[in-house]
Amino acid sequence: MDGTGGDGALEILDLVHDSIIIRALDGTILQWNAAAEAQYGWSRAEALTRRLDELLPCRSPEHLEQIKAELFSHGVWAGELVRRDRHGRDRRIEVRWSIERGEDGTPRRIIETGRDVTEQHANEEAVRLSEYRFRNLFEAMAVSFWEIDFNAVGAMFLPLRDQGVADLRSYLATRPAFVREMMEATRVLDVNAKTLEMFGAAAKDEIVGHGTARYWPEENYPVFVDSLVATLEKQPSFVRETALIDHHGNRLDVMFTVAWSPDTRKRGVVTLGVLDITDRLNAERRLQQIQADYIHAARVATLGELTASIAHEVNQPLAAIATNGEASLRWLSRAEPNVGEARELASRMVADARRAADVIRHIRSMATRQSAGRERLAVGDVIAETLDFLRRDLHAHDVRVTFDAAPRIPLIDGNRTELQQVLINLAVNAQQAMGQHGVQDRRLTIRATAPAGGGVAVEIEDSGPGIPPDLADRLFDSFVTTKPNGLGIGLSICRTIIEAHGGHIAADNGRTGARFTFTLPAAEPPFLP
Ligand code: ADP
């Protein structure tokens, strides 16, 4: 093969997959095969007679001198170069240079073969980077990570399938010992540093290589089973709040997640993420306690305002009992005692005493701290009872009440006392707003309806000044009040109660004054058979 190459030689060079470039010692290109054309974008005609370094600038030309020195001393050089192609793109080329010598041994030409490894390199880099990121996350995150080998568990399923077990969940629900065996059959392949800290292990080998049964309290076996079923059903991931046990036997409240990719699933490996939510749950419990205390305090506060009317309420039957008692004594102490009259009066006394006892029981049930027990209720009954309770107080403040219930309102599941509390708060607020503003025609209109969307809606509208516009969007926040001695928690309690019932409360100004509307979901079934 000479400098320009015969046609036969060219054809052969063009069959080669690698680029082949032959250049003179000064860099002038003498040969340029088809693969070089494809690799760099320059045609043979364009490349021939150009200087290689100029045609394909190198990313670090300063190294070229060193490389050439090595080439001339060893006769060959192999390595990677980054060269710019015709389109300005950097290509990473694995090249091999060798010197062709003349018969007298003097160097004549440099023969280069090159392979474009840009894509391959990018792929390797991407894999390396993703592996690096994964490792980084795996180690550095504040989440406990576990790599678990499930192959042995998979094998345990096969006989079940052959036995025709269709519903794994219910099959396993009655076989805790078998579930435990499956947990033991899982193998921990790796865990991160956070796992050691969270589970109180001194070194990785206390966890890695072992099964996972020790971490599961028996009551949470169903969570393990659900995560298995989710894996089998090829759901993309699984998340559940649960509790696990650490190496010292302490309970950990955790968010338990299982994730797998098609690739890891094929290998029977899953990644578990375990997030410690003990602090969050403690905070939530504290908050619930504070709310319960709050509701209790507010209920007692509301009671304070109503004490006068309660006293009146109880006094009235007591006075009637005393009067009837005296009268019956008179009937009995006659020369001819009138037993019939005395019996009639005695039965009235019993009825009055019952009424007084009812009033007192009612007050007691409001004042004592009751659990948020639910019962099936007709909202109309709850409203009617509350109005019985408030009637005297509202009457004393010249408030006329109308209550209107649409037909066929669904039943609800609710706490009677709490719902009464909401109604009392709303009615007392209305009465105070109308009183404060010296409204002449004081009306409180209560409507219960069954809205098209389902459930129950209760509307309470007064004929007062309406909601002050500047309060509108924070009316239900705590400590928002316009009253000199107001606490500003009545409405926030109403919202807490209604939302705890799965409902919603809102305020606006209706036709006559402020209008509060709350909704409650219907019980299931919504009507008694
Ligand atoms: P408080 O009664 O202690 O002020 P609430 O949370 O029950 O606390 O009420 C907050 C505020 O909402 C009241 O101070 C009042 O300004 C306004 N408000 C409540 N109900 C009505 C109403 N029916 N009409 C006008 N304003 C009302």
CATH top-level class of the largest domain: Alpha Beta
Share in helix? 40-55%
Alpha-carbon distance between the termini? 103 Å
Instruction: Give the overall shape, derived from the CA principal axes.
Output: elongated
User: In what order do the strands lie side by side in the largest sheet?
Assistant: 2-1-5-4-3
Short summary:
With 529 residues, the protein is of the alpha+beta class.
Could you walk me through the main structural features you see in this protein, from its secondary elements to its overall organization?
The protein has 529 residues and is an alpha+beta fold. Helix 15 (379-396) runs parallel beside helix 16 (416-436) and helix 16 (416-436) runs antiparallel to helix 17. A five-stranded antiparallel β-sheet has the order 2-1-5-4-3, with helices on both faces. A five-stranded antiparallel β-sheet has the order 7-6-10-9-8. A five-stranded mixed β-sheet has the order 12-14-15-17-16. The chain folds into four domains: 6-116, Beta-Lactamase (2-Layer Sandwich), CATH 3.30.450.20; 140-276, PAS domain (Beta-Lactamase, 2-Layer Sandwich), CATH 3.30.450; 278-370, Helix Hairpins (Orthogonal Bundle); 373-529, Heat Shock Protein 90, CATH 3.30.565. It is elongated. The protein is built from 17 helices and 17 strands. Helix content is 47%, strand content 22%.
Give the secondary structure arrangement, pairings included:
Elements: H1 7-15, E1 19-24, E2 29-32, H2 34-40, H3 44-47, H4 52-55, H5 62-74, E3 76-84, E4 90-101, E5 107-116, H6 118-140, E6 144-149, H7 151-162, H8 168-173, H9 176-185, E7 187-191, H10 193-199, H11 221-232, E8 237-245, E9 251-259, H12 262-266, E10 269-276, H13 278-332, H14 339-367, E11 375-377, H15 379-396, E12 400-405, E13 412-414, H16 416-436, E14 443-449, E15 456-462, H17 490-500, E16 504-509, E17 514-520
Parallel strand pairs: 12-14
Antiparallel strand pairs: 1-2, 1-5, 3-4, 4-5, 6-7, 6-10, 8-9, 9-10, 11-13, 14-15, 15-17, 16-17
Helix pairs in contact: 13-14, 13-15, 15-16, 16-17
Adenosine-5'-diphosphate (ADP) binds next to helix 16 and helix 17.
